[in-house]
What does this fold into?
Amino acid sequence: MAIASFSSSPYPSATLINSSLHSSSTDLFTSCTLSSINIKPKSVLTTTQTHHYHPYKASEFGGSWKWRTGVSFFPSILTKSKDSEALKEELFSTIAPLDRGAEATPQDQELVDQIARKLEAVNKIKEPLKSDLLNGKWELLYTTSQSVLQTQRPKFLRPNGKIYQAINVDTLRAQNMETWPFYNQVTANLVPLNARRVAVKFDFFRIAGLIPIKSPGSGRGQLEITYLDEELRISRGNRGNLFILKMVDPSYRVPL
It folds into this structure.
């Protein structure tokens, strides 16, 4: 992540896991919009008398018509659930060796993005900002954000420990937390733009988790939550970056 990019400071640049104090448009773990998903309506069966209505079959019995079909009229919830579990396993195994994205090649990034989009297409939580599943502390597993990864720096000057992001939708607060070696933090207020996108306004940075610094006001961004379930969150920011996180503590509360 890199918390606050002060020219006189040895600390990496501060982000609400992805934003830079130097930019008027930053990420909270934020980025590009979801591709539209075209859903074709199912064919509707009419009562036209024919012996060749595919995929349905008709048979005459006692002067009446009976229709037999192998197509289920139940919602495809079970199928979506199976699809999402398989895709999540594929996603986790793909990002595991990529060092949170720092070791990802352009081909790796393309593959991760393809899997993420497949998951987004089967997302069941259409209004994540109204879901309690969003609340709690999330660990960042993968991102394309250079303000987080800081790959241009020597490795010993990058965050090497885990990076967390916490969100509480009831208070509309968010917090990013680095661990080893810098322990920087940043908090922000969230302003809903719709049921899955928020504007992010950073308020305080904490250097080494202790020294509070008020945001100069330029730290802003947007975050869209494109996939959400009990253990996985996929978000995209207004700067085109992808963020993949797993839930670690649903009871965590962001300081007010």
User: Anything to note?
Assistant: The radius of gyration is 23 Å.
